[in-house]
Amino acid sequence: MGVHANTRAIEKDIVTDFSERMSYGSYLDLDTLLSAQKPVSRPEHHDELLFIIQHQTTELWLKLVLHETLAARAAFDEDEIGRALKCVARVKHIQKTLTEQWSVLATLTPTEYSEFRQFLGNSSGFQSYQYRAVEFVLGNKNAGMLTVFESDPAAHDLLERLLAEPSLYDAFWRCLSRLGYDVPASALDRDVTTAYTLNEDLLPLIKFVYENHDEHWAVYEAFEEFVDLEENFQLWRFRHMRTVLRTIGMKSGTGGSSGVGFLQKALDLTFFPELLAVRTEIGR
């Protein structure tokens, strides 16, 4: 059965009656998903739909990133490095998609955005609790951020819980300790409610693994996966900052931040600082 008159015939075994069967649309709850775009501009501006879908799809991907990073942390808790890295690998692919999405939003010109920006009030991506949750799981914790979510009990509770729990990186070092690696106590006993900062006590162990990677391949691979994860995150932050600069210049953000200046500061935040610092030491 081929193509005739540029029309492909429907094969006889393809299901077409969904009166009593689950369909693609019902499985994905498309009625709910596709009705969730509610522009607030009046009169409704053509480009607001792009703005809404950009941010909604980002939140969907962040939901999956959080799902996978929590699963990776759980795998480290069970000393399953390979299973953890499978989750990290998936996150890396999601990150590439998220970064490339900025090119779609960048088609929104300053004039187009200015025609509906005032209708957004104080809503801002800064208020994304899922983004904060991902940052917390990766170790970039900031208890001050919880005040932003006091009006959303569920989001506040999630972030408060993640603030008190070990990060993905903490779980990794604890896993290595259980596997017999000489992980310093300073890495195992740190206050996990604070942002992770450079621990020079870890550098000798990291350097040893890099210089003897054939005998410690799983750990060596984990180091490089973490470096990829951080680099991808920084690329996302950079594209975010540049897209905002392209769209609103140096105006303040709708949520009250300084805008581009605030986003630039995020580029100085790190997740796995020793894995970059050790590069200065290797080969000496």
TrEMBL record:
Heme binds at H240. It catalyses: L-tryptophan + O2 = N-formyl-L-kynurenine. InterPro entries: Trp/Indoleamine_2_3_dOase-like, Trp_2_3_dOase. Substrate binds at F51, I52, I53, Q54, H55, Y113, R117, T254. GO terms for biological process: L-tryptophan catabolic process to acetyl-CoA; L-tryptophan catabolic process to kynurenine. Its cofactor is heme. Its EC number is 1.13.11.11. Keywords: Dioxygenase, Heme, Iron, Metal-binding, Oxidoreductase, Tryptophan catabolism. One of its GO terms (molecular function) is L-tryptophan 2,3-dioxygenase activity. Binds 1 heme group per subunit. It comes from the Bacteria. Heme-dependent dioxygenase that catalyzes the oxidative cleavage of the L-tryptophan (L-Trp) pyrrole ring and converts L-tryptophan to N-formyl-L-kynurenine. Catalyzes the oxidative cleavage of the indole moiety. PANTHER family: TRYPTOPHAN 2,3-DIOXYGENASE. This is Tryptophan 2,3-dioxygenase. It comes from Rhodococcus wratislaviensis NBRC 100605. The gene is kynA.
